[in-house]
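Hello, quick one for you while I still have it in my head. My current little project is about how a certain protein chain folds up. You're getting the sequence in one-letter code plus the fold written as C-alpha cells. Would you mind checking whether the C-alpha cells look sensible for this chain? Here's the protein in full, and shout if anything looks odd to you:
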Amino acid sequence: VCVDLAAANGGNVEQARPNEIVTTENGVKIIGYTDLPSRLASTSSTLFGNNVAKFIMSIGPQTTKEKGKFQIDLNDDAVQNMLISYEGEARWPDKITPYSPPPVTKKETEEEIQLSEEEMFAIANEKAKEDFTRNAGVSALAAAALLAFGITAQTHDSISLMASFALAGLAGYQVVWGVAPALHSPLMAVTNAISGMTAVGGMLLLAHGSSGSEGLIPDSPAHWMGAIATALSFINIAGGFLVSGKMLDLFRRPNDPKDFFELYSIPAGILLAGLAASAVLGLGDLSNVSGSVAIASSICCIAAIAGLANQETARTGNVLGMAGVAFGLAATTADMAGVGASASAFQQVGLLGGIGSGIGAVLASGVGPTELPQTVAAFHSLVGIAAMAGAAGEYFGNVGTLDLGTLTAVYLAIFIGGITATGSMVAYGKLAGMLSSKALSLPGRDALNLSMISICALGMASFLNPSLGGEILSVDPETLRLGSLATAAGVSSILGLHLTASIGGADMPVVITVLNSYSGWALCAEGFMLGDPLLAQVGALIGFSGAILTWIMCEAMGRNIVSVILGGAGTTQVVSSDSKTEYEGEITIATVDNVVETLLEAKNIMIVPGYGLAVAQAQFAVADIAKRLKAMGKNVRFGIHPVAGRMPGQLNVLLAEASVPYDIVFEMEEVNEDFENVDVTLVIGASDTVSSAAEDDPNCSIYGMPVLRVWKSGQVFVLKRTIGNTGYTGMENPILYKDNAEVLLGDAHDSCEAIRTAINMN
C-alpha cells in the first residue's frame, strides 16, 4: 500500500489520483486521499471507541452470553489486569496476576497422500460399481412391482392406466430437473393448484352419489363426500393459481416483451367448443371427445412445469397449468353428462365451485412472499382432505360392488390423504409461528411410527379380505371394512401429525416438498380408484416433482431423505437445551457509519439474505443499496441458500418483488467457492444457513449441512435485532465471534434504510 500525501498537487506516484484508491495490476493499492488528517481523526476515534466498547462489554455483559445477566470475569486476563478494585477491596497491585502469553504450539501439518494412476482408476471403478449396483437394485424393485401389478390386475384397463401413470411420471421426472432453483416456490404453488384436480372425484360423486333427490342439499353419505371434495378442491385451484400468478409477476421486468396470452384462447376455445358440440349436438362419441380433452389437460399440466424452467417462460407455464385444470374439469363435466347426471348435480358443481373459488381468491389476495410457505402448506391440507372425502364417497356409493384393485386404491387414498392433511396442518402451524419450531421427541418415537404403520397395514389386509378378521371379531364383512377404513383415516391422521411434529424447524423446507409429493400420490390413488387416466397422470406428475424437490432439498441440507420422510427416524437429539456451546472471543458491535464506510471502500460485495429479511420487509431498501453500489462500479451479488426462508425459492421471490435483477442473484453452489475474493459480506436475517458450526461442530443439529461460507470473506457484517436472537434451529451462530465479523444491531428494515440513506449521501 502506497499513501501519496502529495496527491492534491499531482502526486509522487505516477498512478495516484486525487481522492481515489487505485489498485495496480500487480495488486498495489495507491491511496490518494487529500483529506487524510480528517479521515485519520475519524478512523482513530472509531478504532479507539470500538476497543473501549469491546473492553467494557467483556468485563461483564458478555461473560455468560446470557441476555440481561451481568457477571465480571476475573479469569479474563484483560479484565483482571485492568480492574483495580472489586467489591470494595483494592486489587492493585497485590491481587493482579501478571499476564503471561500461552506457549506457542506448532500446528501439525497433514501429510498429503499421493495416489498413483492405478489407485485412482481403482477408486473410480469402485464408485462406478456402487452407482450401477444402486441403479440395478432400484430397477429390480421396479420390475418386481410391475410384475406384481400385472399378476394382480383384473382388467386390461388397469394395465393401460399403469402405462399412463408410468409415462406421465417419466415426463414429470425429466421436466422438473429443468426448473430453475429460483422458481421452486412458484413450482410448488403451481403443482399445488394442479393437485386441486381432486375436484374430478368430487364432481363424479355428485353426478351419481345422490339417492334420487333433485335438491341442492346432498342427501347421501357419498353425495356429502363429493360436495366436500369439490368445494375444497376449488379453493385449492383458485387460491393456488392466483398465488402462483402473483409470485411470477414479481419476476417480470419493465423491458420484458409483452405477453399475448389472450391468443391462447383460440386453441382453448376450439377444444372446448368441440366438447360442447359433442355434448349438445351429438357430434361424435362424447366419451371419446372428453377423453381427447383430458389428454390435452395432461399435456398442458406437464408443459406447465416445463415452462417454469426459467423466468422468461414461467408465466406461460402458469397459464398452461390453468388451461390444463380447466380442460380436465371440462372433460369431467362431459363425463357427468355421459353418466346421466341430473340438472341439480350440475347446479351443485357450479355452486360449490363458485363458493370454493371465491374463498380461494380471498385467501390468495392477502398472501405475499413472506406468507407463501404456510399458505402452500394450508392448501396441501385441503388436497389431503379432498382425497379422503373422494375415496370415502366412492366406497359409500358402491358398498359391496368394488373390485380388489379399486378397494386398494380407496384405502391408499384414505391413508395418504390423512397423512397429507394433518401433516400439512402441523407444518402450517410451525411456519406461521403458532407452534414451536422444535422437533417433538416423544419416548419411543420411531416405535410409535412403526406401530401406526403396522396398524394401517393390518387394517388394509382386513379391508381387502374381511375373512381374515371376520371370524375373530364376529362381524359381517362390510362392517369390518368400514371399521378398517375409519381406523386407517384416524391412525394415518395421527401419523401425519406425529411425523411432521417430530421434524425440527430447520427441516421445514423439506417437509413442504414431501407434503407436495404426498398430495400427488393421493391424487394418483384417486385416479386408480376411479379408473381415470387423467388423475393418474397428473398425480404422477405432482408426486414425482415433489419427490425430486425433496431429494434436492435434502442434498442441500445434508439430510437423509428417508429419515426426513419418516419423521426423523434413526436420529437423536444431539444437544440438550441446557448445554450451550461456548465460543471463544467477543462479539463486535458495528455502527451504520462503519458499515457504509467499509462498503464504499470495497469492490466485491456479497449480500446474503435470510428469512429475517422477509419478516422485516427490508427487500426494497436492500435492492436500492445494491443498485446504488453497482452504480458506483462495484461488483454486487446476492447469494441464496437453497433452503433460505421457509420453502425452496422463497428468497428469490422476495428479491424479485423488489426488482432485484435476477442475473445478480446466485445459488449457493455458484458463489460458495468465491467468498475468499469477497471484500464485504452483508448477512441480513440469515443465521443457520451461514453458520460455520455446520462444518466445525459435530455436536450441533445442522452439522453436515452445506452452508454459505460468509466467514471466509474479508469482512462480514451481520444484521440482527438482538444478540440473543438465534436461528430457526434455536442455536447460536459462531461466526458472530470471529475477528472479521461485526454485528449491526436493530430491526433489519431500519438498519437497511439507514445504510441506504448514508450511501445516497455519498
